[in-house]
Design a protein that fits this description.
homodimer, alpha+beta, 60s Ribosomal Protein L30, Chain: A, Phosphoribosyl-aminoimidazole Synthetase, Chain A, domain 2, 4-stranded mixed beta sheet, 13 strands, 35% helix, 24% strand, globular
Chain lengths: 338, 338
């Protein structure tokens, strides 16, 4: 079967991407020799590259009812670039597949592309290639390519050692709290302040990849790094497994995002459910204890706080310690809830 | 929203890909320094890279009723690698997103991955990264990265000049004829031989990217190249537009794939509808007239025929000339039918 190609819409998309600075026009980086429009894009990467693929799907990662096309585009690009942030990479190019459902009109497609382009342009990323097809539901997959002078400049998940400190950038829980509000619009009412509402929904709808922080942490001696997407427990477990270590996290040391305490109270939930809920796209990083102060100082000029929330030990598995001395082995949100 | 991660299934997928030789284990090419399992894969590309993204979606590119998971995987990988073939690239790495619908059980997921892996391994491609999420319908997107010593080694769509010959590899029409049979299982019956049936369905379900031919044609002086996916008319138009030339194709010189004549007769269709129907994943190539014999000789040892089917002229647009002197401007299948 052959999908009916929408050549006119594709031409408009290219024009919009180029206008947003996320195209591959004259001011695209020297690395890109041929952008969208041929069978493949041509680049001359230089050193080492980090490549990741990520998808954002209606009904799974968002609902159109509360996530307009522009936000879908922003989130799809941000979650892919977050993986590059976790490598400490300099983001370079993105390649996008857009599966367009019958209900999404051309204007909606262009709005989605504007969202993709805005996040890409802010990160200095060129959208160097793409594919538009019909699809039963809205879905976007983004392949992002990042760069570094040499392979060793990237931070993997596998370098953590017993004795290292475990830190997190920014604050957690906002995305899960925002999801709670978006999925339960009747929740709270006057109990939840406008500030809490806006902050949490923005964390869910418009995550910001920690690209600059990732590169600075790589330079500051990060030994292992991962972005918090699946959930604090699950992502810590990925890092622990890859490094062959155990991780202990003191949940009360985890900084909570704006609005989380308020929304948790209104929803009758524990703040730590939200803190461990995932999708905050902050960076979880293992650092040598002796390098902690320096790393925090390096992040200060870009306005990204770094909090020590736990430690790497010998062994296997992740323990999320709750206040009051309780502790439970867990793999994420779902287990914390049970 | 956070998709529920299926860590166990992902581990099994990695094992299967590695076993098929499409993983990133010990025998993966030197270029890949870190495969699937971290936030991103790490490669050290060397020269120039060509990157393409392609998607294969239930109800748009196939129907599960006639396309088992293994075939979905094969076709998804083949169509992405075909873009690299059209660049004359050496295929290197692939990154795959798999959107898994509720009806596809873990065994089906693994069968699909076996299909991806078989085509990747045959082309010397490592599946260096992936993403598995839930999705309302089955969808696969594949980003493929190919390599060449230098940027100029890739063949673009834009180099054709008036006076060049237009050639096609292999034979056309099989994929469209196969689609006709798969969509109309009652068609023909005894009128269509088993040989025609099998050959045509295989062209639709299991396209073979012309990777080796693409590289040989690049070395033989191909000036512009594209793969035949959208349809002969539409793809010729892409090439004509990119090169700023006109193209004339004599449809009666287009080699027809096995079974096309028989199936067209049974279906009461014109063979040229099928020949222009797309999805054959042959290569359409502009060559200097003086280099035609040499190019054909270079392809002979790999068993790929090269047929001269038209010519590049000054002007704009594509003319598909029909036998009997008729000629019509067109952009593909749909217009030929009208």
């Amino acid at each position: 079967m052959r999908a009916s190609p929408e050549f006119e819409l594709i031409a408009k998309i290219r024009e919009r991407l180029a206008r947003a600075g996320a195209g591959s026009g004259a001011d695209a980086p020297e690395r890109i020799r041929l952008g969208a429009g041929d069978d493949a894009a041509i680049t001359v990467p230089g050193g080492a590259t980090a490549t990741t693929i990520d998808a954002t799907v209606e009904g799974i990662h968002f609902r159109s009812g509360w996530c307009p096309p522009h936000s879908v585009g922003r989130k799809a690009m941000a979650t892919a670039l977050s993986d590059l942030a976790a490598m400490g990479a300099e983001p370079g190019e993105a390649y996008v597949w857009l599966g367009r459902p019958p209900w999404l009109d051309p204007e909606g497609v262009l709005e989605l592309c504007d969202g993709l382009a805005a996040v890409a342009a802010a990160a200095g990323v060129a959208i160097a290639g793409g594919d538009l097809t019909a699809a039963p539901e809205l879905a976007v997959s983004v392949t992002a390519v990042g760069h570094a002078p040499a392979e060793a400049d990237f931070v993997r998940r596998s370098g953590a050692e017993p004795g290292d400190a475990l830190c997190v950038t920014g604050a957690l829980g906002g995305a899960a709290a925002g999801l709670m509000l978006l999925e339960h619009p009747d929740l709270g009412g006057e109990e939840i302040s406008a500030e809490a509402d806006v902050a949490a929904c923005q964390r869910q709808l418009d995550p910001r990849p920690r690209i600059e922080a990732g590169r600075l942490l790589a330079g500051a001696g990060a030994k292992a790094m991962i972005d918090v997407s699946d959930g604090l427990g699950a992502d810590a477990e990925h890092l622990a497994e890859a490094s062959g270590v155990a991780i202990e996290i003191e949940l009360e040391r985890v900084p909570l995002a704006t609005g989380v305490a308020e929304i948790a109270a209104a929803a009758g939930r524990d703040v730590y459910e939200f803190a461990a809920g995932g999708e905050d796209y902050e960076l979880l990083v293992a650092l040598p204890r002796a390098g902690l102060e320096r790393a925090a100082a390096i992040l200060e000029p870009v306005g990204v706080p770094l909090a020590e929330i736990g430690r790497i030990t010998a062994g296997r598995g992740v323990r999320l310690r709750l206040p009051g001395g309780r502790s439970l082995p867990m793999t994420g949100y779902d287990q914390l809830r049970s």
